[in-house]
Design a protein that fits this description.
Layout (H helix, E strand, L loop, with lengths): L8 E4 L11 E3 L2 E2 L2 H17 L6 H16 L3 E4 L19 E3 L7 H4 L3 H8 L9 E4 L4 H14 L4 E4 L11 H7 L3 H20 L6 H9 L8 E3 L2 H4 L5 E3 L5 H15 L7 E4 L7 H8 L5 E4 L16 H10 L6 E3 L4 H12 L4 E4 L2 H13 L8
Parallel strand pairs: 1-4, 5-6, 6-7, 9-13, 10-11, 10-13, 11-12
Antiparallel strand pairs: 1-2, 2-3, 8-9
Length: 379
């Protein structure tokens, strides 16, 4: 949206989807691999010379900031890697605006066992004098944490979306209808729109406000409720649904979407699923699978630059599915993602196929399609 409003924007998100450097973009274009590796070497040399011993994610964050400085971006859109308070990205002391979306229970070992403890970590990105835009659909106890944190940190104002700004985001309704967005997608787009508007106000660029709506209408995020052509891998004529849902909150949203938009009560859904170690398998599966569904469990491959990430054994996923009473066909494809997708295609025939459970599985599939020359998988 900001790019549409003639602002030079650097964006840093994690994890990457296909290549390690595609998590860094300038004006919606992935940074050049040579520039990335050169900036990364500069950062790593500095880390070694000063004996900082930074973590892999800290080095990646510093590389993104190095590139943004080189490219002289006007605004950086920075996604927190994990939590907020102690995240590497939280070195930013004077943000133009901070945004907190819907909070779910994930990474409890690091962030806390309750939703309120996790909210405290998320609220750690609030900064004195900087507006904070929050998702008002969070639980009341979470919103109370945000209010307390805003007062303690001096974040001002604290803006609840959509309750505090229903008039301002009314301009997005045509976009909601045109793109047929789910409720959570509408809320997330509203958060981004309001945060972008605040940036334009602070930069004296309100004349470009209409361009934000144009940018909103073109918003697309790979691996999130993405309809995907996998004919290059399987010969399948029908599109599949690709989604990186990996915790209860995102699985609930995906399950709702599938039930409303995709599931045909007379035919089962065939799922291809991989899950990272440490996730609540039973909770995820219960939110996604129906008794008659078919399941192909796979393990995603090694994740470049994230050696600590590993996949759950597919047999464990199938064991949970059996315990839930799933009566469809259950298959273990091991680490053969292509074979698993091809098997799912044969099982489903013309019926729905959903590929989900991990952004790392999304990454594997998009990379496989990219390598076949399928331009639709390119970022």
């Amino acid at each position: 949206m900001l790019h549409a409003a003639n602002v030079k924007v650097g964006r840093f998100t994690s994890p990457h989807l296909i290549d390690r450097w595609d998590c860094i973009t300038v004006n919606e274009q992935v940074v050049d691999e040579f520039k990335f590796r050169k900036a990364e070497k500069t950062v790593k040399d500095r880390d070694l010379a000063e004996n900082i011993r930074a973590s892999e994610f800290e080095l990646l964050t510093a590389t993104a900031f190095e590139l943004f400085a080189q490219e002289k971006v006007d605004v950086g859109v920075i996604e927190v890697g994990l939590g907020g308070r102690h995240d590497a990205t939280n070195v930013i002391k004077r943000p133009l605006v901070t945004v907190i979306t819907k909070i779910g229970q994930d990474h409890q070992a690091l962030l806390g066992n309750t939703i309120e403890e996790i909210a405290i970590q998320k609220a750690g990105i609030m900064k004195r004098g900087a507006p904070c835009v929050v998702d008002a659909t969070n639980l009341p106890t979470v919103l109370k944490v945000f209010q307390t944190s805003a007062q303690e940190n001096g974040a001002d104002p604290l803006i609840h979306v959509p309750t505090d700004v229903s008039g301002e985001i009314g301009a997005l309704r045509p976009v909601f209808l045109e793109q047929n967005l789910e409720h959570h997608q509408q809320t997330n787009l509203s958060l981004a729109y309001l945060a972008s508007k605040i940036v334009l106000q602070q930069r004296g660029l309100m004349a470009h406000l209409p361009a934000l709506l144009q940018g909103a209408s073109r918003t697309f995020w790979p691996g999130r409720l993405q309809s995907l052509d996998i004919a290059a891998l399987t010969g399948r004529k029908e599109l599949v649904l690709l989604d990186g849902a990996h915790n209860a909150q995102s699985a609930e949203a995906l399950g709702s979407f599938v039930n409303k938009r995709i599931r045909n009560n007379s035919h089962p859904v065939t799922w291809v699923i991989a899950v990272s170690v440490g996730k609540n398998l039973r909770e995820l599966c219960a939110l996604l699978f129906h008794r008659e569904d078919n399941i192909v469990a796979v393990a995603f491959g090694a994740v470049d630059g994230m050696s600590w990430v590993s996949p759950t054994d597919p047999s464990a996923i199938l064991e949970v599915a059996r315990s839930l009473g799933i009566s469809g066909s259950l298959h273990n494809a091991g680490r053969d993602v292509v074979g698993g997708v091809q098997l799912a295609d044969r099982i489903a025939a013309a019926n729905p196929v959903v590929i989900c459970g991990s952004l790392y599985l999304v990454s594997d599939l998009l990379r496989l399609l990219r390598d076949t020359g399928n331009s639709k998988a390119m970022l």
